[in-house]
Amino acid sequence: MRCSELCARLDERLDTAAYADVDASANGLQVGPADASVGHVAFAVDAAVATIKAAREAGADLLVTHHGLSWGGIDRVTGSHYRRIAPLIEGDIALYVSHLPLDGHQDLGNAAGVADTLGLAERVPFGELGGEHIGQCGTASEPCTPGELRERLAAGLDTGDGEVRVLDFGPPEIRDVAIVTGSGADWLEEAVDAGADALVTGEGKGKVYHEAREAGISVVLAGHYATETFGVRALADLVGEWGPETSFVDHPTGL
């Protein structure tokens, strides 16, 4: 399959164009010739030296990641940009990136994957940003305590050396859960307005402690990396159905 065809299919499936004005990431093909042939696609959360090296060792022609290399443009190919771009070019590996489109996709996205792990039903888009959504909100089939919610996530997420933390300020029984993966603490107020008992995200900010306590909502900090493996894994399954060989590069950060 040609790289251009594969990238076009991904762009269409993820509705990449809808996020063009709200995402700092340059989503889509970031590195590599569009006319190259792709037989093996590697998938990873981060485009980093370690994951690029692993993709090269796996014989990948294309690396698909959630976090890419271009955030608002690249002025100079020096430092970390050079360290990451050089092995891509040397290994003749293209790089495709999907950031917010992969967070918010209601079937393939990261939040959808967390919702699957929790067994949430009655799901609706959540986490509004510039007219688009980057998360999901749903209802648990059976109420659970904040501790039980933490245990379910700890068992279902790739936390590496990290841990799932809970700011237990909400009701003793949790039924409605809002999810914005990665760094989603800024959507706490929207979670409150939506009537959620808990907000699940990856990492917090200092302000979220008092905001959650005063609003009476629990916040679960399950790890940035851990909450964002679902999307690239789902894309690996999808691309595998299209023909190319696929592999997943797991490099948990514990953060």
Brief summary of the model shown:
The protein is an alpha/beta fold and 255 residues long.
Description:
This protein has 9 helices and 11 strands. With 255 residues, the chain is α/β, with parallel strands linked by helices. It folds into 2 domains: 3-98, 3-Layer(aba) Sandwich (Udp-n-acetylmuramoylalanyl-d-glutamate--2,6- Diaminopimelate Ligase, Chain: A, domain 1), CATH 3.40.1390; 103-227, Udp-n-acetylmuramoylalanyl-d-glutamate--2,6- Diaminopimelate Ligase, Chain: A, domain 1 (3-Layer(aba) Sandwich). The strands form 2 sheets. It has a 6-stranded mixed β-sheet with strand order 5-6-8-9-10-7. A 5-stranded mixed β-sheet has the order 1-4-3-2-11, with helices on both faces. Strand 8, helix 7 and strand 9 form a beta-alpha-beta unit. Helix 2 (49-57) packs parallel to helix 3. The two termini are 36 Å apart. 49% of the residues are buried.
Strand order of the largest sheet: 5-6-8-9-10-7
Annotated CATH architecture of the largest domain? 3-Layer(aba) Sandwich
Count of structural domains: 2
Could you state the CATH homologous superfamily of the largest domain? Answer: NIF3 (NGG1p interacting factor 3)-like
User: Helix coverage percent of residues?
Assistant: 25-40%
Shape: elongated
Mean pLDDT: 97
- Roughly how many Å is the radius of gyration? 18 Å
